[in-house]
Amino acid sequence: MLDDPRTIEFWILRTCERFGIPPGEFKQLDYPQQVTLLAYSSIRQNEDALREN
Amino acid sequence: MKISGQSLELNFVQPFSLPRPDGSTLSFQLSPLPLGFQANLRKRRVASPRPPIKVSRDSSGKPVRDASGLAVTQADFTDSRYLEESELYHQRVAVLAIVEALRNDPEVTFDASPPTTIESASTAWGNFADAIFGELEQAGLSAGDLIAFCDEICRISNMLDQHIRETQVNFSSPPPESSI
User: Fold this and answer.
1) Using CB atoms, which residue from A26, A27, A42 is nearest to B164?
2) Is position A50 within any domain?
3) pLDDT (tens digit, 9 = 90+) per residue, B21-39?
């Protein structure tokens, strides 16, 4: 996803972990909802990394 | 809500024009397949068939055996029934992908209804896909047309990075213009 070497499967599980959603439930969401959650999770991941540095 | 005819909601719909033999075009609105589409197919019992197993034989027709004396087996990918089932599987996947991709096109409706949770027998989704294929055939769509649909669906379904970037932009407000 974007410039990260992690696979999309990793980012789905990471997003599900952040939101407390079972992966099976994530895959039942419609595409815009999935993209919104992934986009938010990506931004938060970057913010967390900046804060730790 | 729409402004100047444009919806502000991101739904990633892409226009798709299908050329017809008479020179006209059919216009559709295609949406990317949801992540997990393939996994959902398996849940709906639309799965790739497995080739039958056959015993390997030597030139004299005797079974080939391994060091333990057990007959060596191999998958028979040339089995005619397996080939038919494999072709049907790929047809069903293509059709269900087309139905899914057309979900946001208000101009397209199908006579067949997708199975409800209650009636989801193991063959329900396969039968639904077959019914849709029949409708597509009756509408005059050829195998080449279905391939064209699927090519475009594959293209727009591999734009996740771009769609994520577009969505991320929505999380930030533009900076206020300088009053100087």
Assistant:
1) A42
2) no
3) 899 999 999 999 999 898 8
Whether B40 and A31 lie within 8 Å, measured CB to CB: no
Contact A8 B160 (CB under 8 A): yes
For A41, nearest residue in chain B (alpha carbons): B168
Global pTM? 0.81
User: Is the ipTM value over 0.90, yes or no?
Assistant: no
User: In this complex, do B168 and A27 lie within 8 Å of one another by their Cβ atoms?
Assistant: no
Cβ atoms of residues B160 and A1 within 8 Å:
yes
Per residue in B123-159, pLDDT (tens digit) is: 899 999 999 999 999 999 999 999 999 999 999 998 8
Which residue segment(s) compose the domain that A20 sits in? 8-42
Judge contact between B29 and B105, C-beta under 8 A.
yes
pLDDT at B161 over 80: yes
Question: Structurally, how many domains does chain A consist of?
Answer: 1
Instruction: Give residues with Cβ within 8 angstroms of A32, minimum separation 6.
Output: B9, B10, B11, B12
